[in-house]
């Protein structure tokens, strides 16, 4: 089973979420992940609250870590429903992804996004499609 540091190293390749947005993996377990993202000025919309795209990026990243962090197979987002519940007034967003059902080729996850003040910011349901990993290139 990979360590948290190995999972972080693997997901460092998700450059948009990690480098641009600043997402961090806090917990990675099979079917469960918690990721956080400090809110920076680049995340804010004209109303000075995190824009939906920033919230979605963190939530989708948490899903990816939960679904793929401990799997030999590859799971991608197939369909998402997001409900924005409140604007964040905190300094950090936290996304927790939990597997509700995992089948042979599809899965269903719930992702809840809160902030460091405890406000519920968004709720997502994510349908994933699971496939065999791409063959690795020979060295």
Task: Give a description of the structure.
This protein is an alpha+beta fold and 139 residues long. The chain is 23% helix and 41% strand. It contains three helices and six strands. A six-stranded antiparallel sheet has the order 1-2-4-5-6-3. Strand 4 and strand 5 form a beta hairpin. It is globular and about 45 Å long. The mean pLDDT is 95.
> How many strands?
6
Helix and strand content put the structural class at alpha+beta
Helix tally?
3
What is the residue-mean pLDDT, rounded to a whole number?
A: 95
| Beta-strand residue percentage | 35-45%
Distance between the termini: 24 Å
Strand order of the largest sheet: 1-2-4-5-6-3
Instruction: Give the topology string: H per helix, E per strand.
Output: HHEEHEEEE
**Can you summarize the main beta sheet?**
6 strands, antiparallel
Shape: globular
Low-confidence stretches: none
The gyration radius over C-alpha positions equals 15 Å
What is the fold's blueprint, element by element?
Elements: H1 4-11, H2 15-21, E1 24-29, E2 32-38, H3 52-68, E3 74-84, E4 92-102, E5 106-115, E6 120-131
Antiparallel strand pairs: 1-2, 2-4, 3-6, 4-5, 5-6
